[in-house]
Amino acid sequence: MQVMKVGAAVRRWWSDRRVAARRDAGMSTTEYAMGTIAAAAFAAVLYKVLTSGAVSKALESVIGKALDAPF
Question: Is the pTM of this model over 0.70?
Answer without folding.
Answer: no
